[in-house]
Amino acid sequence: MLDTKRDTPPPAAGRAGMKKELPEHFKDYRHVWVFIELERGQVHPVSFELLGEGRKLADKLGVELAGVVLGPPGEATWHAVAEAFAYGADLAYIVEAPLLADYRNEPFTKAMTDLVETYKPEVLLLGATTLGRDLAGSVATTLLTGLTADCTELDVDADGSLAATRPTFGGSLLCTIYTLNCRPQMATVRPRVMAMPERMNKPVGRVIQHEVPMVEEEIVTKALGFLSDGQSSNANLAYADVVVAGGLGLGAAENLKLVKNLARVIGAEYGCSRPLVQKGWMPADRQIGQTGKTIRPKLYIAAGISGAIQHRVGVGGADLIVAINTDPNAPIFDFAHLGVVTDAIRFLPSLTEVFTHRLSPHSRDKLAN
Amino acid sequence: MTEEKFDAIVIGAGMAGNAAAYTMASRGLKVLQLERGEYPGSKNVQGAIMYSNMLEKIIPDFRDDAPLERHLIEQRFWMMDDTSHIGMQYRSDDFNESRHNRYTVIRAQFDKWFSRKVREAGATVLCETTVTELARDSDGKVIGVLTDRTGDMILADVVVLAEGVNGLLGTRAGLRETPKPQNVALAVKEMHFLPEEVIDQRFGLKANEGCVIEAAGTISRSMAGLAFLYTNKESISIGIGCLVSDFAATMESPYELLESFKNHPSIRTLIAGSEVKEYAAHLIPEGGYRAIPQLFGNGWVVVGDAAQLNNAVHREGSNLAMTSGRLAGEAIFLVRKGGRPMTKENLALYKSMLDKSFVIKDLRKYKDMPALLHTNSRNFFTTYPQLLSQAAQNFMRVDSTPKLDKERATTAAFIKARSRWGLVGDAVRLAFAWR
Amino acid sequence: MHILICIKQVPDSAQIRVHPVTNTIMRQGVPTIINPYDLFALEEALRLRDCHGGEVTVLTMGPPMAEDALRKALTYGADRAVLLTDRYFAGSDTLATSFALSQAIAKIGETFGAPDIVFTGKQTIDGDTAQVGPGIAKRLDLLQLTYVAKIVSIDLDAREITVERRSEGGTQTLMTKLPCLITMLEGTNEIRRGSLDDALRAARSQIVKWNAADAGIEDLTKCGLRGSPTVVKRVFAPTARAEKAEQIDTTEKTSRDLAEELIAGIFSRQPALEDELAFDGDD
Ligand SMILES: Cc1cc2nc3c(=O)[nH]c(=O)nc-3n(C[C@H](O)[C@H](O)[C@H](O)COP(=O)(O)OP(=O)(O)OC[C@H]3O[C@@H](n4cnc5c(N)ncnc54)[C@H](O)[C@@H]3O)c2cc1C
Ligand SMILES: Cc1cc2nc3c(=O)[nH]c(=O)nc-3n(C[C@H](O)[C@H](O)[C@H](O)COP(=O)(O)OP(=O)(O)OC[C@H]3O[C@@H](n4cnc5c(N)ncnc54)[C@H](O)[C@@H]3O)c2cc1C
Ligand SMILES: Nc1ncnc2c1ncn2[C@@H]1O[C@H](COP(=O)(O)O)[C@@H](O)[C@H]1O
C-alpha cells in the first residue's frame, strides 16, 4: 500500500471533503449490528463490550441494535442470544447450522454475508480476535465495503456516518476513518478496549431466525481438532483485574520471578513488555501493548518498563497505574498515576513482603481485633 | 560454487569504498563490493559535511538526485569555558552560489544513494556480508576474500580495502598495525529532531541554508577534543570527540561529555525541545601524516579511514576518503589497461597519484599538529579557553574598574597561567605545526 | 510447487517521529524494513520449497524504492520478485490493496504458473489491519487459513494441507485443499541468512516491475484512492494525560517503608481493591 494517505491530514479538496453521496441502493441500510462471537459454547466477552458501544451508536442514530449469532443448533447458541439481550440488543439474528460448530472461514463468511445482504445493516461491528479478524476481512471483501481495524473509539457524526478512530503508526497518532459510499460500515475492536457494559436482566427481544442453505460436503476446509490452552498457560491477562508486568529494566530472566511472586501474592496475572518476549523470557501471550494484549485492570503495576507508546496503548484503560522505574524521566510516569523512582529488583521483594503481610488473613484478623 | 572471478573486490561501502567501486565499475571493470551493514550507510555515523568538489570529480551531476540536507553558508568556531563561549564566525551570501561548496548530509541516506550509483555503474553490491579474511596465494599475493556467508572464497585480481577506521581485516592480515590510541579519536554523536522552521529560525537560515558550529574548550575536560553541531534539514547532529588515549587516561565517559556539551548554556537553547533519535559512537583517525600506513601491496590497496587519511585539523575525512578511493580506482584501471598484473610495483601508481593530490599535501602540512595538541592538551583545551573567556568578559562587563586595570589583569592572568615563555612557546609551536 | 508470498516494505515504526506542530509523520531518516511478520511467512515458504521443490515468488505493491525489500527477499533465497508499482495505487486502503495484489497474483499465475499457496504476514506494522490476506483470498477464491502457527503436512498428490491455527483460547487443526492462502503467525521460525550464491544471485537479478496495465488491471477505479471505500478524515495526536504520576518521595526511606507507602497510596485511590486482592498460598 502506498501510504501517502496516512501521511498527512488529507487536504480539504480530497475525497473526505467531497460531498458524500450514498448510492440509492444503500439508502435502506439501517441498524447497528454486533457479531456475537461464539466458540465452543462460550461467548467472547469482547462481544458484550461491543454491544455496549453499539448501544450508544444505535441510540445516536435512532435505530435498533442487533446481535448476530452464528452457531450449531442447541442450547449454547440460544444462550448467546439471551446474553446479547442482557447486554443491550433489541433483537438478534440467528443462523443455526451444524457446520457452524467449529469456526471455519467459509461457512461463517457465507452466513454473515447472506444475513447482511438480506437484512441490510448500516453498521457492523466485530471483535478484533483471531476469529473476528479472519471473518471481517472476508466479509468486507465479499461485500466490497470498507473495514476499519482495531478501533479505539466509535462515534456517529452529524449526518449519521460512522466515525471510527484507530491508532496509526504504532500508536503515535490516531486517525478517524470513514466508510464513504458503501454499506455496511464495518469496524473491529480489540478485546478490552471498550468498557464492559452493565448486564441487565432484560426480557428477551425479537429473534429473527435465518436459514442459509449450506451442506458440509460443500465446505472444503475440515476442522480436525482443537487443543485448548487450558487455564494455566493461556494467560487470562486481558480480563484480569490486577496485572503486574516486568520490562527490560529487570535486567535478567531470573528476575522475572520477582514479578511472578508479587502477582501470586496479590492474585494478579503477570505480563511483560515486548523485548522480554523477543528475548524468550516470556511467552508471546504475556505481552502487553500494541502487538500484544490490551488490558483494562483495576490495578496495573509496571516494573522496569519505560512506557513506550506501543506499550502505553495497551494499558491506557487501566484504572490505576503504578510505575516503578529508576529513571525519573521515563515516559511511563507521564501516564502512570503513582510512581516510585527506585530499583525494582530491590523494591519488588519488599513490596511483595508488605503485601503478603497486609493481605494474609491472619494479619487482617489481627488488624480487626 | 562461486567459481567466479572479479577484476576487483572492494571491501566496505563507505565514502572511500563507493568512490573506488564507482570509479572502476564506470570504467568497465567487473567489480564486487561487500558491505557488512544491512545497507550502505547503516553502519556509518549519521550527519556529516560533504564536500562537493571531491564528489564532482566522481559524479559530476550528483546534485540532481543526491540526498543533500543543507548547503553551508555559515561556520562558527567557539572557544568555550563552562558558562561562556567566545568565537569567530563567518557567514557569506557567496555560499548561496548555484553549485554549493559544502553540504550537510545524513550518511545513512547519502551512502545509500552513492551505493545506488555504484550499482547503476555496473558493480555487484552485496550487503550484510562481512569479509572475514583475505585469501592469498603461496607467494602471499592477495587473490580474493572469504566472507561470513556459506560459500566458497571469491577471487579477484585486486582487493581494495575500504573498511573504515577499525580496519580489522587489514590489521589481522598484517598489512598494517592497529591504530594507536593517541592516533584515533572516539566521537559520540546524536541526532536531534526539530521541525525545519525551528532550525531556520534558531540559526537565522532560509531555504536550505545551513550552519556549522565547531567548539573546543573546557567541554573536553582537558582532553584533546572537539565538539560540533551541524544543521540538517529537520535535525541537528551534535557530537563530541576526544582522543581514545585521553579517554583511557582520564576515565571520562564520552556520553557524559556529550551530555554536558548539550547542557552548555550556549548550546542548550539551540537544541531545546528536540527529540533525540539516534545515538552513535565512531572512531576518527587523527594520527595524520605520520600515522599513514603502507598503502599498497601485492594484490591490494587501502583507502579512506582505513589508511588513516583524515585531516583532523579541518575536520575533513569524507573528501580524503572519496579522493583516495577514486585515485585507487583510477590507478587500478590504468594498470589493467596497460595489461600489467596487480603487483606491488604496479600498484605503487596509486601512491604516487595520492602524493600529488591535496590528500597527502594537506596531511603533510599538519604533520606535527596531532603531537602538539596531544602533549599540550591541557593548555589548548582548558587554560586558553578559560583565559580567553575571562578576558572577553573583562572587556565587556561595565563596572567602575578603569580600563587600564582591566587590561593589566587580563595580561597578568595569562602570564600567571602559562608564564611568558609558555605563551611564546605555545604560539611558536602552533605556528610551526600549522605552517 | 509454486509458492507466492506478499511482503510489504514499511517504515520502521520504532523510529517514527511525529511533527510536534503539524502532527504529520516526519520521515527523514526513518529506515524502511520488510514488515517483520512477513519474514516468518517468507521463511516458511522457503522451507516448503526446500522440502517439496518448486519456487518461491515474492510480490509487493509499493513505491519504486520497495525494490529494496524485494532484493532483500531474494538474498534470503526467494527465486523471483515482482514489484507492482503505479501512481494509480497511491492511497489504497485494504480493499484496493487486495484488489491490486490479487490481480497481480492472477497475472503471475498466467506468466509463471499458478501458485499452490499464497502466503501473507499476519499483519503489517503500519497498516496493522490483518485484512489484506483475507481480502486476497476472497478475491482469488482461495481457501483461507489465518494465524497459522504450524504447517503440519502437505500432500501434493491429494492437494491437501493440514495446519495448526491459533484461535481464541486454543489451537485448531484444520485441513483444506490447495490452492490456499495462509497468514503466518509470528515466532514460528526465524528468517535464514542466504548463502553467498543467493546473495550474488539477488544482487544481479532483474526484478519484474509491473504497472497497473502490466498486471492486467483494466478497471483503475478499483485502485488507489478511488477504489478505497474508507477515507482518513482526520489525523491527530493522542491527548496527553494532564497530570503526571504522583511520585512517592524515596529520600531516606527503606524499601519496606516505601512499600508501605505505595500500598497505602494504592488503597486510598482504589479502596475496593483491598478486599479483592487475594492472597493465595504462603512463602
Ligand atoms: C511495531 C512495534 C510494536 C511494538 N509493540 C509493543 C507491544 O505490544 N508491547 C510493548 O511493550 N512494546 C512494544 N514495542 C516495543 C516498544 O517500542 C518498546 O521498545 C518496549 O515497550 C520497551 O520495553 P521496556 O520498557 O521493557 O524496555 P526499555 O525501553 O529498555 O525500558 C527499560 C526501563 O527500565 C528502567 N530500569 C532499568 N533498570 C531498572 C531497575 N533496576 N529498576 C527499575 N527500573 C529500571 C529504565 O529506566 C527504563 O525506563 C513495539 C515496537 C514496535 C516497533
Ligand atoms: C562523528 C564524526 C563526524 C565526522 N564528520 C565529518 C565531516 O563532517 N566531514 C567529513 O568529511 N568527514 C567527517 N568525518 C569523517 C568521515 O566520516 C570518514 O573519514 C569517512 O566516512 C571515511 O570513509 P571510509 O569509506 O574510509 O570509511 P567508512 O565510512 O567507515 O566505511 C567503511 C565501511 O566498511 C564496512 N566494513 C568494515 N569492515 C568490513 C568487512 N570486514 N567486510 C565488509 N564491510 C566492512 C563498514 O560497515 C563501513 O560501511 C566524521 C567522522 C565522525 C566519526
Ligand atoms: N502493499 C502490499 N504489498 C504486498 N503485500 C502486502 C501489502 N500490504 C499488505 N500486504 C500483505 O498483507 C499482510 C497483512 O497486511 P495488513 O492488512 O496491512 O495488516 C501483510 O503482512 C503482507 O503480507
From TrEMBL, chain A:
Keywords: Electron transport, FAD, Flavoprotein, Nitrogen fixation, Plasmid, Transport
Keyword Flavoprotein: yes
Record-linked InterPro entries: DHS-like_NAD/FAD-binding_dom, ETF_a/b_N, ETF_a/FixB, ETF_alpha_N, ETF_asu_C, ETF_asu_C_CS, Rossmann-like_a/b/a_fold
UniProt-recorded Gene Ontology molecular function terms: electron transfer activity; flavin adenine dinucleotide binding
Cofactor(s) essential for the protein: FAD
UniProt cross-references to SMART domains, sorted A to Z: ETF (SM00893)
Source species, domain of life: Bacteria
Family annotation (Pfam families): ETF, ETF_alpha
Record GO biological process: fatty acid beta-oxidation using acyl-CoA dehydrogenase
PROSITE patterns linked: ETF_ALPHA
Domain called Electron transfer flavoprotein alpha/beta-subunit N-terminal: residue spans: 32-223
Keyword set includes Cytoplasm: no
Stored CDD domains: ETF_alpha (cd01715)
Residues reported in the UniProt entry to bind FAD: 273-274, 287-291, 304-311, 325
Cofactor binding: number and manner: Binds 1 FAD per dimer.
Assembly mode: FixA and FixB form a heterodimer.
Known function: May play a role in a redox process involved in nitrogen fixation.
Family statement: Belongs to the ETF alpha-subunit/FixB family.
Protein name: Electron transfer flavoprotein alpha subunit apoprotein
Gene source species: Sinorhizobium americanum
Lineage, opening ranks: Bacteria, Pseudomonadati, Pseudomonadota, Alphaproteobacteria, Hyphomicrobiales
Gene: fixB
UniProtKB/TrEMBL annotation, chain B:
InterPro entries linked: FAD/NAD-bd_sf, FixC-like, FixC-like_C, MnmG_N
Signal peptide: none
UniProt keyword list: FAD, Flavoprotein, Oxidoreductase, Plasmid
Domain of life according to the entry: Bacteria
Residue span, MnmG N-terminal domain: 7-165
GO MF terms held by the record: FAD binding; oxidoreductase activity
Domain (FixC-like C-terminal): residue spans on this chain: 369-435
Cofactor: FAD
Family, as annotated: Belongs to the ETF-QO/FixC family.
Task of the protein: Could be required for the formation of a functional nitrogenase Fe protein. Probably accepts electrons from FixA/FixB and reduces a quinone. Part of an electron transfer system.
Official protein name in the record: Protein FixC
Top-level taxonomy: Bacteria, Pseudomonadati, Pseudomonadota, Alphaproteobacteria, Hyphomicrobiales
Gene: fixC
Automatic annotation (TrEMBL), chain C:
Matching PANTHER family: ELECTRON TRANSFER FLAVOPROTEIN BETA-SUBUNIT (PTHR21294), PROTEIN FIXA (PTHR21294:SF17)
Domain Electron transfer flavoprotein alpha/beta-subunit N-terminal: 22-219
A GO MF label: electron transfer activity
Gene3D superfamilies: HUPs
PROSITE patterns xref list: ETF_BETA
Keyword Disulfide bond applies: no
Coiled coil residues, start to end: none
Keywords: Electron transport, Nitrogen fixation, Plasmid, Transport
Subunit structure: FixA and FixB form a heterodimer.
InterPro entries hit by this protein: ET-Flavoprotein_bsu_CS, ETF_a/b_N, ETF_b, ETF_beta_N, Rossmann-like_a/b/a_fold
Superkingdom of source: Bacteria
Family (UniProt): Belongs to the ETF beta-subunit/FixA family.
Alphabetical list of CDD domains matching this protein: ETF_beta (cd01714)
Function: May play a role in a redox process involved in nitrogen fixation.
Stated name of the protein: Protein FixA
